[in-house]
Structure formats: structure tokens, C-alpha cells
Predict the 3D structure of the following.
Amino acid sequence: MAFRQKNKKEKKTRIVEAAAKVFARRGFSGTLVADIAVEAGIGKGTLYEYFDSKEDLFFAVFEWFVQKTGAEAKVSISALGGSASERLEALTESLMHSWVELEDLYSLVMEFWSASASSQMRERFKQAFREGYGDFRHIVSALIREGIERGEFRPDVDAASVAAALVGTWDALLLQAWFDEAFNPLTTAKRFMTVLIRGLAG
Amino acid sequence: MAFRQKNKKEKKTRIVEAAAKVFARRGFSGTLVADIAVEAGIGKGTLYEYFDSKEDLFFAVFEWFVQKTGAEAKVSISALGGSASERLEALTESLMHSWVELEDLYSLVMEFWSASASSQMRERFKQAFREGYGDFRHIVSALIREGIERGEFRPDVDAASVAAALVGTWDALLLQAWFDEAFNPLTTAKRFMTVLIRGLAG
Amino acid sequence: MAFRQKNKKEKKTRIVEAAAKVFARRGFSGTLVADIAVEAGIGKGTLYEYFDSKEDLFFAVFEWFVQKTGAEAKVSISALGGSASERLEALTESLMHSWVELEDLYSLVMEFWSASASSQMRERFKQAFREGYGDFRHIVSALIREGIERGEFRPDVDAASVAAALVGTWDALLLQAWFDEAFNPLTTAKRFMTVLIRGLAG
Amino acid sequence: MAFRQKNKKEKKTRIVEAAAKVFARRGFSGTLVADIAVEAGIGKGTLYEYFDSKEDLFFAVFEWFVQKTGAEAKVSISALGGSASERLEALTESLMHSWVELEDLYSLVMEFWSASASSQMRERFKQAFREGYGDFRHIVSALIREGIERGEFRPDVDAASVAAALVGTWDALLLQAWFDEAFNPLTTAKRFMTVLIRGLAG
DNA sequence: CATGAATGAGGCTTCATTCAT
DNA sequence: GATGAATGAAGCCTCATTCAT
């Protein structure tokens, strides 16, 4: 039974991953449940053994994506050492690197935004985004505050505001990379961070 | 005939504005053509005298939106005087202020992103975004470069990178305001700009 | 516009009549909405301009049927003259005659019963049946009471009970005719009424 | 092996009884095979070891029901003594009493009617009903003829017609009780029988 | 020009049945 | 024998688009 459970969970994940691919390719509305089934290599009806509806599955993809990317970010942060500046720079680099492996799935992010704006699941999504952004802002804010306490950054810096803006900046750089293949988010981010950190250090 | 043209154009705009409202409320997929017709106070069939399809109308809304917001931004910029720092700060303020009147329509932005990610019109949208971002980056970049030339900002600042990041930051702050009513984009932006400008000035 | 309205109502009735035929042939579950559309000579989607769902249409068929048969019964009754006995006999005859033109649609009755027993519309149906039976019992009861008052029937007859039983008997005779082609409801009813009326007259 | 057979038969009956409950609650179409399995406390697949299809099982429920109620009726009749009138009255009472224990399953009757009207098994059902009604009419007819022969009832009474009507009346009274909780089939039947028997005795 | 009734392709979901374990 | 996960045919309903008025 324990084995069974594991299989069931694994299969659920397999379906979610297949769905992620298709949703990324065609968007929520453009995706047919049948396409997901094909991608997952299962029958159409089997999907409904694991998820109640297309929307449910989409939300599961969202959670999977948040988990996946959030986990990476957290790993990066906890693995960091050195001064606050160094850690901010390393974090930036790590996030911009994630772009490479995220590229194929990045359009999912737009679908999630869109869903949070107008789908019937809007509240579920909005809340999750709010929380996700909140968490991340919190982490970055703590990092900056640590820099202030260490005397590395100026005491009059408003950590919360900088954190909020910075988190947004990272996101927006990936967004621009999505729109424009010629855009290099990593280089851009690094050069920008040099300026910002100088501003923090005063 | 000139008169007719004008009437026709006005009506077209009225439809686009009505459509914008409904698309903002319900998203592209969630919007019924019939709803738009009701909002515009015309018959469903009449829509098709002015637009070839729902997608066409949506793209017209997009163009209208870009025009509208772009025009505002350009007005702000051209009206600015003073040092580069002052102008950057004024621009920030002006953009964050636009939030107030944009709030109701902001979810359109997400729909546009989503459309650029997966709709059948994706290329049309992607290109427009690329160009829009490009234009805006260009303007901000020029502003920063001016600051460098005036000796206000450090010569080693990479204007293009800072511009790209900054444009993204503004966008992302509005996004966070959308998700989180408690979030104040104006204050956050101002405090952040203080730090950034210090970094630029070195 | 008045003309429009009339057309709309007529079309609605046409659809109901087409639906009645198909439901009678195949039952509620066995009927495809598409079949009804074909029978009505309209597109599948057009149905939904007139009815919200298959169930709604089915209930409309029910109401149409009740109206149709109820109207006949009422006409028969009001047209009757003579003694109470004569009127009871004439009513019996009229009802059993209705069998001839009802035969094709009679299976609808079973569908209605079934729907009142277990469909999601059960309460709507149950109530309608309760009311329909109640009305009819009332009419027959009044007829019997009139017979008592005229001295034609015994004063100790319980009009309500006899009416309830009689109304049921008529129904059940048609039911048996439905199951058994060899069964003649008219003759059976007449012979039975002779006995019953003798019992009433005492 | 004999033992096995018995177990198998018992289990089959258990399934049928479970199915009867569920069909009575939700009707044929509304019932899921899975629900029956749960009610019977077995696996869904196991059902198909005992019955070929949902329809088959439904017909088995029908046969079980006919057997069950028919057996009761026959017991009542054979146990009766006294004059024909007394026996008719006793039979009436016995049948109306059966209502109490049948109430929960009564909606099955409607499902059977409905099935005989339109399901794919319609002929099987129709025939069974025809036979069932026929048998019952026969028994009642014999009872009445006995009354005639004994000189208790008038010789000009058409026993077959009265029997057919009476059988229908009983049925229809239970039906009305089903629709209308306030309706008392026993009292109604008794008062009606007083009148009818007076008519028979003339 | 304007309309809205009519349309039917298309999609999500259900559920009886099968079959590998 | 027993099971329940997997299946896919089938059906209800939606809604962008057309076209006769």
C-alpha cells in the first residue's frame, strides 16, 4: 500500500509535468485536456481520476511550479556565504541562471498572471502570488537588514522597499528576456546590481 | 464622407473602450462577444462590421492601451526639467501615479502577456511588447546617459542595463500593487529610487 | 414586435411538440438533444435559445402535456349535462377515448413518473403531480357530491374517497392498455362504472 | 460445490438488494454502478462477476421485486376466508398495508414503468408487467366470480372488467400515496370498497 | 448600416465496462 | 474469485460567427 501510494503520487506528478508542458505551449484556454492526456501517455478519463477538472489541474501545475522555483531560490540563498553584497549578487546570478532551464516553461508565468486576473480561480491565484511575493520580499529584506546591521549598508536604507523593488526587478528582467531573445538578463542584472549595491553601501 | 469616416472611427473607439472594460473584468477567454456588445450599447452583429473577429478586437484594445499609456509616459518625460536625478524621480512618481487611473484596466496587461505567450496572435503581441519595452528602455537610457554626460552620474554606469532594470522595476511594482491592495507602489518606488540614484551618482 | 412574440411562442411550442415525440420514443435518458433538434428541424444550438437545459425542456413537455390533457378533461366535464351518473359515465367515456390519440405519447407519462421519483427535478414533478391529481379529484368529488345532494347517490358515500379511487382507476386502466394491446380500456371502464354507480346509488 | 453455489446465490441476492436500494433512491440513470458496489460492500469489478451489465442487474432487481411483492399478495389471498366481500375487503387492506414496508422501494415501480416505456429492455419489462397484471387480474376475477356463483354478487357483473379496474385502483392509490404524504390509501380504499361491493352485490 | 436569431463545431466531463494484478 | 485503476465513447452545452431582414 505504501508502494501504491508512492506510485499514485508519482503518476500525479507525471501528469502535472506533462500538463505544464502543454499549458506552457498553448496556454490554458488553448490547451485541450485530450492533449495533456496524450502528452502524459494516459487516457483522457484517467486525468479525472487524479484531478477534478482542467482548472484543478492547472492550479496543481501552478503549485508545482511555485514549489520548484521557490525551492531553487531557497537553496541558493541558504547556500550563500560572505558579505551581504556578495550574497545579493550571488542570489541575482542564481536567479538569472534559472532562466536557462525555465525558458520553456516561462510562458506559464504569464498564464498564471492571467489566471489571477480574470479566471474563475482568480482568488486562489492572487492569494498564492501575494504570499509568494511576500515570502520572497521577506527573505531579501532580511538579507538587506543584515547588511545594515553589519554596517555594510547605510542605516537609512528602507530595506522593505528595496526588497520589494528588487524582487520585482528580477522578475521583470526575465519577462523582458522572454519577449526579446536578444536580451541578456544575467549581464543586465549584474551591471544593475553594481549600481544598486553602491547605492545601498552609500 | 469625411463626416462618415469620423463617425465610424468614433464608434470604433467606443467599441474598443467598451471591450477594454469587459476584457479587463473577465479576461479574453471569459469575455463573451455578446457582453462587449451590451457594454458598447450595440448589437452583436454590429461588432463584426467594425472588427473581423474577437481576436482582432482584442488586439485593437491592446493597441489602444499601448497608445494611451505610452502617450501619458511620453508627456511626463517631455515635460520634465531639472537634473537627471530629478527627472528620474519625477518620472517614477508620474508612472506610479498612473496606477490610480489604471487600476481598473491593469488586469488587461496580464491578458496581453498571456496572449503574447500562447494565443494565436502571439507573434503580433510579442513584437509589440518587444518594441514597447525597447522604446521605453531607450528613453530612460538616454536620460541616464545625459546624467553621465553632465557629470551627474558616474561614467562607468551601464546606462542600458540600468534602464532595462528600472523599466522592469516600475512594471513589477505596479504588478505587486495589483496583487496586494496593501502594497503602496509610490512610496516603495520613491525610497528605492533614493538608493538607486545614490548608486548612479556614486 | 407583437408578431415577433407570437412567432417566438409558436416556435417554442413546435420545439416542445417535437421533443414530446422523441422523449416518448426514447425516454428522457435515451433521448439526445441532437435528436430533438433534428425532429424540430432546427439546429442543436437553437434549442438553447428557448430552453436552458434538456431537463428544462423536458419539464416544458410535461407542462404542455398536462395542459393538453387537462384541458380536454375540463372541456368534457363542462360540456356534460344530465344526471350525475350520466355525467360520470360520459366523463369516463371521454377519458378512455383520449387513449386513442394519446397512445403514442402515453409512455411520456411513465417518464414523468420516473422523473418525479428520482430525477433532479423530482420536486418540481412531484408537486405538479400532486396538484394535478388534487385538482382532478376535486372536480370528480364535486360531481359526486352533487349526485348526493340531488338524492341520486346515497348520503353516506364518501365522495372524496370515491373520487380519489376513481381518478386512479382511470389512470390505471390506461396504463394497462399501454402494457397490453389486447386490453380494451373503454369497455372495461364502462362495465366497471355500471357496478360502481349502482354502489353509489345504493 | 453445492455450498459454493449457495454462497454465490446469496451474494447475488445481496447485490440485488443493495442495487434495489440505490435504484430506488436515484433511479436507473442516476445510479452509478460504483454506488451499488459501495452499498453492497464489494468492489466495482465484482459486480460484473455476477451480472453482465447495469441493465441486467436492473432487470434482476425487477424480478426480485415482482417475486417479493407477488409472494406477499398470494400469501394474503390464500390465507383469506369468509365471504367474497370479506375476502375482497381483506385483500384490499392487506395490499394497502404493504405500503408501509414498500414506501422506500416504491419509486422502483416508476423506474420499472419507465424502463418498460423506453429502455432497451422495454420488451422484457412490458411482457413481465403484462403477465404480472394478468395474473393478478385473474386471481381477483376468480374471487369475484366465486362471489357470483355463491349468489353473493349479481350475475350480470362482468368479473373480468371489475377485476381489471380494481387491480388498477389499488395500484393508483399507492401511487397517490407516493406523491402525497397527506394521502391515506388505506382509509380511502376501504371507503371506496364499501361502495363498490354494494354495487357488486346490487 | 444595424440587428439578433440561428447555427454547429468543439470541448469538458461522465461513467459503464474491462483487465492486469 | 475479487479488485479498482484505466479507459474512451458519448453527450450536454457554449459561444464565435453568419446572414436574412
